[in-house]
Design a protein that fits this description.
2 domains
Length: 132
């Protein structure tokens, strides 16, 4: 688990009022392997975060899911910063501004506008796949 994830999990635990049970929860989610957040695997961390979010009634933001779908397709098309595996947000935002008809970056799109944007981006993604 990264330091950023540790902070997020600690925040979720505090929000849920479960801070005093942190070691027990980590122990349970690692099948008894450890009591330390820093030693959790990615899958264990995801499972714990999912549980804490559901415990808090946060099932996920649908708008963020659509944005992540666009970023996933951009990643698969290798729209990445040189020498990294991080999506080139400038390229994604430039595409959104230029081709969406909305003249705004990805994060500025409202929930009601995102389905159309995802559909437009899927067309670009399909064209990319046809060219492979």
């Amino acid at each position: 688990m990264t330091p950023k994830q540790i902070g997020m999990v600690r925040g979720l635990l505090a929000k849920a009022g479960l801070t005093q049970h942190k070691e027990d929860m980590v122990y349970d989610y690692t099948n008894g392997r450890t009591e330390h957040l820093s030693e959790m695997t990615h899958d264990e961390t995801q499972a714990l975060v999912k549980y804490l979010n559901s415990f808090l009634g946060q099932t996920g933001n649908p708008a963020e899911k659509m944005r992540r779908k666009i970023l996933s397709m951009a990643h698969e098309m290798h729209w990445e910063l040189p020498g990294t595996t991080r999506v080139d947000m400038k390229r994604v935002n430039n595409w959104c501004i230029r081709f969406s008809g909305q003249n705004k970056p990805l994060d500025a799109f409202k929930y009601s506008e995102l389905p159309a944007l995802v559909s437009q981006f899927e067309i670009v993604y399909r064209d990319f796949l046809k060219g492979i």
